[in-house]
Amino acid sequence: MIRIRELKISANQNQNLMKAIMEQLKIEKKEILDYRVYKRSIDARRKENIMFVYIIDVQVKDEKSVLNRCKRNKNIALVPEELPVEANVNKGNLKLEKPPVIIGTGPAGLFCGLYLAEKGYRPILLERGEKVEQRVKDVYDFWKNGKLNPESNVQFGEGGAGTFSDGKLTTRIKDPRCRYVLKKLKEHGAPEEILYDSKPHIGTDKLRNVVAEIRKSIIREGGQVLYGHKVTELQIEKGEIKGVAIENKGHLETSIVIAAMGHSARDLFESFYQSGVPMETKAFSLGVRIEHPQKQINLIQYGTDKNAHILGAADYRLSWHHPMGRGAYTFCMCPGGMVVASASEAGSVVTNGMSAYGRKGKNANSALLVSVTPKDFEGDDPLAGMRFQRKWEQEAFKLGGENYHAPVQRVEDFLASRPSWELGSVLSTYRPGVTPTELTSCLPPYVTEVLREALKKWDQKMKGFALKDALLTGVETRSSSPLRIKRNERMESDVKGLYPTGEGCGFAGGIMSAAADGIRSAEAVLERYYLSES
Length: 534
What we know:
Elements: E1 2-10, H1 17-25, E2 32-43, E3 51-60, H2 63-69, E4 76-78, E5 94-96, E6 101-103, H3 107-118, E7 124-127, H4 132-145, H5 176-187, H6 204-220, E8 224-227, E9 231-237, E10 240-246, E11 250-253, E12 257-259, H7 266-274, E13 279-281, E14 284-293, H8 294-302, H9 308-311, E15 319-321, E16 327-334, E17 338-341, E18 351-354, E19 363-372, H10 384-400, E20 406-410, H11 411-415, E21 434-436, H12 445-461, E22 471-476, E23 483-485, E24 498-500, H13 511-528, E25 529-531
Domain FAD-dependent protein C-terminal: 284-479
Pfam families: FAD-depend_C
Protein name: FAD-dependent protein C-terminal domain-containing protein
């Protein structure tokens, strides 16, 4: 097929894509056998003429003639060959007596499990929480009634934390496994446009169904997915994995454990540390959620709210580096979404953002985060960052009223260093409720200082971003793992048979990179072992 790059179509004038392809290739419609959109993005730099920018793959009757005719056009060439992910992966020569065990069913665990199951390795996935159907009920009960289930919530359960998010599939990593992940998501019910949108997303409503379908595929291929199976301890003898202990269910023998638990599995981090698994603390970020009217963001980004039905709800990504060295940035921006209660421990308030596929909510929200490093933590052990997170989550719980209500503050009040006594025109989407207050009590002073300066800088870049009634909700602490479980170039810990994987172990950030890392761990197992048929 022939690939056309930088094919621009006006979003305002509703131009015809087929006609644009014909003009680029200098051919008639009858000469085009088929075409597909490989990538689509939006160029909104000129508000009066916003453009869709495409990469299109086209199948024509006389490929050689078309290429010769367009040889001066640098944006037209043959489609490069894409090798399948498994092309260079061969099964190893070491025998596995027992199937590999995967801890966690987030993106890393699910895609590791799916890949191993498709290769005949019959993996056993252990999930401390509930399957996604029951998990949704538990989460909504918490949001409605403030009743937290510590084992089934936004952090724990089938699908991982990403299940209650915007379902973003953007990533900065350049890895062919990402294409594989997108194709598998599409096969399991995700919208087709995730294969070509430059900022693909599934939405929490559709992602839940996709997660359930992936589970069914793993089981169909011979794997097992077990819920309410909380791993409490690794069984290690002479530096080698021998199995895992499961709360109230005994133990499970295995010589391979893929540790794909999420970034909130604090009790398991403590257990690993006590077992001597090498790990280290690492930098992460801390901050708040900001909510604007979605119409305000559309107006800033598109110059008008009228194009939103064509272009979709507008998003943004901002960053700024404080002269004193700390970075501030927006994270997990959710157009037309809601701020969600994401606690996994009693007596804490944690926030996150979530959007449905349609992104039709009245508010836009995003995390506003500031970098923190091990120098900011109390203690120098690998769990210091985890304790640092917990401290500020508990302070937010107290400030909110000790009932899982979140502390909130209007941007105007935050910039003026005064408490908010009531909300303005922007109403909070956070449930079970919010408490107007002053956020300085649940944030380190240096984070507050950087956020104030960043808001002013971003308002200069996006005029109206520091809207006086825009709402800040505290706290966001779980943007990434507070530690890293060490591994070597073979993806393995110094503990033989332990494969630290994904976001929780400090090797990913988001659905795509976590899923890709899960596949890498599966490949590492394949390249060394084959599963006994007995």
